[in-house]
Amino acid sequence: MNIHGKHNYFRQILNVLFAMTQVFAPFFSEFTGIGRTIEAQAAADPVTNPEVPAGYTFSIWFIIFVLSLIYAIYQVLPHQRENKLFQRIGGLTAISFFLSTAWMLIVQIFGDGWVLVAIIILMLISTLKALFRFVKFPEPLTAFDRWVIAPLLGLFSGWLSVAAFLNTFSVLKAYSLHNLALPTNLFAVVVISLAAALSLTVIFKSRGNLWYGATILWALVGIIFANVSLPRNMLVTGFAGCLFVIVTGTLFYSRRQFAHAKKLK
Fold it and tell me: CB under 8 Å to 22, separation ≥6 — which residues?
């Protein structure tokens, strides 16, 4: 096996290894009795954390984990070793799976902190780079590419685009730094605005990637339903509702523009 072949083999193995570890990592505390479970730490009171989506929206991780495993198992097959798309994104997906595993283990053992913020930002960067490489891949896509890789990268990077800001501002709250300037609801609006700004940029850059856009809309729906029953949180509810309309319009406009540009080529 030449050096190039060894590199591809190593990439394949790392994707399988870390795709599997990220599936089992959430259960570390439950199985070992060390630290606190992610579910216990993620439970958020909408009165004090109006920027956090409703709990059911986090079920998106189940889909991400399943798609990660399907992708990892398929790309490790011998005849996929020279697959050009997998070579373009494989190193980045392995990094993302590794960082996902590390984040889940650290949060259970040590709790929230700046280390986790750094990890989730790096995870977001690697996953977005993989998404951009995927949408710019010059060769025709297979059915597997369209129905496994596209949703995997879109859902993963979309949710991380929201989670990175939630994680960062959750640490700020832990140090009470948010109280220095803004009340709770306005602070939540700032968090949601920053996440939306990044998301709109990615939607344009990813040529209106439907899976990414749908994930952002899913998070906004979660924020709306988490706050709609609380009169004091109507500012957050209304703001998230307006962003839902803006993101939807941007998504369809970007897809239409890309489709039009493609026809002109």
Answer: 65, 68, 97, 100, 101, 104
